[in-house]
Amino acid sequence: MPLTEDVVVRRKVSVRAQATEERRRQILTAAADAFASTGYNATSLRDIAGRAGLSHTGLLHHFPDKPGLLEAVLDDQIERAAEAFPLESRDGEAFLRALVGIAERDIGQPAEVRLFAMLSAEALTPGHPAHGYMARWYDRVRVRLTEAFSDLDRLGLYKGRPLSPEQAAIHVSAMRDGVTLQWLLAPDEVDLVAAVRSQIALYADIPL
To answer: Who is most buried in 68, 84, 166, 204, counting CB within 10 A?
Structure first.
């Protein structure tokens, strides 16, 4: 509590807390690089510790198991995208423009895109620790796209009929995954941003 009501209390971040957060970021970066290079199954915690310049025990202090570290990596990827773009906006036009913005961002960070593609493919196996995570993620993507197209439909800006907003959501999300793989394999031949923009434009009568 402040001594007087007009005094603002500025809480300092302790050196230990700051060091812990920096080390955690270091581990997440190392894990993301490792998973993107060799996948989850072929990567060990010792591999990640080595990349991060830590002992195996030191890594376990921050992340006791590999599934927990995997979830933290995925959360970090999604949270950073959400910080940069209005992915939770209920404005359909803003949300769809954000998807184009993410494609523009992705072409500058192919390693992160490869990471998500690798983990998505591995997670098709029911026993994979990210199986449920990815199923929930893609369900969320379809729901948000459906909401966005439904918002445009309400405003008279949806041009996907006879396809429903639900069907358009499946088409756009599927296209995004497919064209992303093609772009990763042939970045000089596949224009990721143009593909995403043109696909959304099939259903949305808005400037992109």
So the answer is: 204
